[in-house]
Amino acid sequence: MVNSTVSTKMLEKIAKVENFRFEETLTGFKWIGNKAIELRKEGYTVPFAFEEAIGFMCGEFINDKDGVSALALVAELAAQLAKKNMNILDYLNSLYNKYGYFMSNNYYFICHEQDVINAFFDNIRYGDEKQPSNDPFYDYKLNYPKEIAGKKIINVRDLTVNYDSSTPDHKALLPSSKSSQMITFRLDSNDCAITLRTSGTEPKIKYYIELSGESKEKAEIELKKVFEGMIETLQVHKYNL
């Protein structure tokens, strides 16, 4: 199965537990659809793919988001659940009980000044003071935060400079581009992920925070802590965002 990198990490968690292949892509069905085609050429079946901005690709006939087929499958699911005296919310809660209660906080900061946007991301990437880099691939020494809200950052992926701390050569697997900003942090607990990226069409810095908890209440508490920690660690107020 496939989803975009800013979509829920719940599908990734399900894939690990149930042992099926999961792939993530950049935002947009041109990436998702093409990834599905690639996987089929490798011999895989891709029954489902989606992105955070509400688009679903069901089955293998249409390599794009399609609301008609999605509606048909949801109706079929509802009918099958009704035979068990369940509804869709009951089924969703059963998934939360098995894989964790995933919650997200997705929103944005408005910023009309490109220099401020660049300075904000440079501060995340290089720290308060830029230091010379020993690696000619990077303009300055990379100096990302080490923790957020008391949680250790275990992986950093920066698609602007083609860096990923989790790969052997520290190069990103997803396509990178210097013309846009996109940094993702993975934290060491609660399946927590934070992504910040610029919008290609609006004066926005978008953020996507997600984690899981044993219950909705515990997830809400942790999500609030991580959001507040992100604001502090990334010095959001310094840039009047």
CATH class of the largest domain: Alpha Beta
Low-confidence stretches at least 5 residues in length (pLDDT < 50)? none
CATH topology of the largest domain: TATA-Binding Protein
In CATH, the homologous superfamily of the largest domain goes by the name Alpha-D-phosphohexomutase, C-terminal domain
How many domains comprise the coordinates?
2
> What kind of oligomer do you see?
single chain
**Main sheet: strands, sense, barrel:** 7 strands, antiparallel
Number of strands: 11
Q: Helix coverage percent of residues?
A: 25-40%
Q: First CA to last CA: what distance?
A: 36 Å
Radius of gyration: 19 Å
CATH architecture call of the largest domain = 2-Layer Sandwich
Describe the global form.
globular
Total helical elements: 6
| Overall average residue pLDDT | 95
Topology:
Blueprint: E1 2-4, H1 10-18, E2 23-25, H2 29-41, E3 48-51, E4 55-58, H3 67-82, H4 88-99, E5 101-110, H5 114-126, E6 147-148, E7 151-158, E8 163-164, E9 182-187, E10 193-198, E11 204-213, H6 216-233
Description:
Helices cover 34% and strands 24% of the residues. The protein is built from six helices and eleven strands. With 241 residues, it is α+β, with helices and mostly antiparallel strands. Strand 9 and strand 10 (193-198) form a beta hairpin. It folds into two domains: 2-99, Alpha-D-Glucose-1,6-Bisphosphate, subunit A, domain 3 (Alpha-D-Glucose-1,6-Bisphosphate, Chain A, domain 3), CATH 3.40.120.10; 101-239, Alpha-D-phosphohexomutase, C-terminal domain (TATA-Binding Protein, 2-Layer Sandwich), CATH 3.30.310. The protein has helices at 10-18, 29-41, 67-82, 88-99, 114-126, 216-233, and strands spanning 2-4, 23-25, 48-51, 55-58, 101-110, 147-148, 151-158, 163-164, 182-187, 193-198, 204-213. The relative contact order is 0.13. The longest helix has 18 residues, at 216-233. Strands 5, 6, 7, 8, 9, 10 and 11 form a seven-stranded antiparallel β-sheet that branches.
